[in-house]
Amino acid sequence: MTRKEEREQAFTLIFESLFGNEKSDLTQLYSENVEAISDYALMLFNGVNEKEKELDSVISKYSKGWKISRISKVNVAILRLAVYELKYVDEVPQSVSINEAVELAKKYSSKEDSAFINGLLGSVVRED
User: Fold this and answer.
1) Average pLDDT over residues 110-127
2) How far apart, in Å, are the Cα atoms of 48 and each of 15, 19, 21, 91, 112?
3) Measured between alpha carbons, how far is 23 from 46 in angstroms, rounded to an integer?
4) How far is 126 from 20, CA to CA, in rounded Å?
5) pLDDT tens track for 74-94
6) For residue 43, with 0-12 CB atoms within 10 Å meaning exposed, 13-18 middle and 19 or more buried, which class applies?
């Protein structure tokens, strides 16, 4: 499985968790019904869950006028994943994290949303 596929797995789990599902149930259901979860995807999913408030604080800081509750769940999941990777996964270059987040937005959201995500993550990197 490629790193891109692992990241997409983590995104799927993070997105599903936004609907109030028990996190341990999600990983079990995904493993049983879709495919085995990679170690990297599981690390991202668990990390995002552990740091959710901190990640949301960063997203809120840079989303200029957009509260988390106004951002679509798809974009919240993408942003949480990307901000986590930017802040806590040193072996992944920041440009790769941003590019992969933009690609996820193009696939699961819209062009306008991918530009929003690109701009927000660019601001996070510049200010850090």
Assistant:
1) 92
2) 11, 15, 15, 17, 24
3) 9
4) 33
5) 999 999 999 999 999 999 999
6) middle
